[in-house]
Amino acid sequence: MIPIKPTKLTTFLILMLCIGTNAAVHQNEQGHYLSVSVQSMIDETVPYDTLWINGGYFFENNILITKPITIIGRQNPILDAGGQGQVLIIRSDDVTIEGLTLKGSATSNMTENAGIKIENARRVKIIANTLCDNFFGVYLANSVKCVVRDNIIRGGYERESNSGNGIHLWQCDSIEITNNVISEHRDAIYLEFVINSHVFGNHCEDNIRYGLHFMFSNNDQYRNNVFNNNGAGVAVMYSSRVEMTDNIFENNLGPSSFGILLKDITDSRITGNQLLKNTIGIRLEGTSRIEIARNNIEDNGWAVLITANCTDNDFENNTFRYNSFDVSTNGKLVLNTFDQNYWDKYEGYDLDRNGMGDVPFHPVSIFATVVSEVPEAIMLYRSFTQYLMDRAEKAIPSVTPENLVDHEPLMKPSVL
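Predicted structure:
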C-alpha cells in the first residue's frame, strides 16, 4: 500500500466529514479537538476550562457537569433530551452556560425535569440560551449568587397539569433573573423560600397561571418587568419586604384574574407600576403595612379589591382612571388609608387652587358592593338603575364604608 502523506487538503476533508456527521469541530480553550458527545467533551475538560461547541444537533439527556467550566455555543448547537429525563444538570460552582439551545426534557409529575437543572451550586451563570419544549426551563435548588440572563424560554404547553415553570427557584439566595423572555409555561418565574434576589427587565407573556409567583420569599425585588396576557399577573404570598417597582401588568384577564395579588404579605412597597386592562388591578388579602404609591391603575374591571382583614396599607399619589369600579371591600371597618390620589370619577372642586379637592371622595360605590355580593348584577352596569343607586348612596350613605375615603383627592393625575 502506498502511504498517504497528510496534506492541508486531507485535513480539510476530515474536518468536513466531522461537520457532516454530528457537529462541527469542538475544542477546548487550548485549541485541542474533542469528541462529538457533549458528555464526553465535558469529561475531557479540566476545571476552569472553556469548551466551545461549534454547531451540531446532539440527542443526549442527563448531561452532567460536576466541575467549574464554561461552555459557549457558536452557530446554535442544539441539545435535545428527546423527552427523556433532564437535558443538562449542574452540580458544581462557577459554571457558565452560554449560547446553547436546550430542549425536550421529560414531562413528569414526580420529578422536576428541566432544560437546565442547578443543584447546590454557587456563581452559576445561564446566559443567552434558548430553552424550548422543556417541562421546567431553568430549575435552581439550594443555590447562591447565580445569574439567569438574556434567555428565551418557551414551554409550548397549553395545560397547567403537564407544564412546569419557566424559571423555578427553591431555597435560593442572591439570585439575579434579568432580561429573559418567558412564555407558555405554568408560571413564568416561581420563587419559594428565596431571599435577597432580583427579578429585573423580564418579559413574561402567555403563561398558563402567573407571570411571577412568590411564596415564603423575603427581601426580594422585581423591577421593570412586563407581565402581559397571563392567567394572572403576579402573586406575592406569605412574604415580607418585597419591592415591586416600575413594572407593567397588562391584559391579565379571566373570571378572577388580576395584575397583582397580595396575600398575607407585610412591609412591602408597590411604586411606579402600570396596571392596565386587567380584570382586577390589585387584590389584597390579609396584608399589612404596604406602601402603594405613584402607580397608574387604568382601564381595569376593579382597580383595587381589598378585604376587611387588611390593615395599615397606604394608597398615596396613585392615578385611578377608566376603571369600571375603583375600590371594593367586603367589610365596613376599613383600617387602611387613601390620601391624595387622582380619581377620574371625582366631581368635586378646588376653590383654594392647591391642586387637591375641597370635598372628600368615597371611592366605593354601592353598585360595586352589590356586584361583589351578586356577580350577576353586572348586567346592570352603566344602566339607569346603577346611576340611581350610586346617586342615592352619595346623598344618604348607608352601605359603603364611611372611613374608606380620600380626604384630599388630586385634581390632576399624579401619574401620566
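Summary: Residues 1-25 have pLDDT under 50 and may be disordered.
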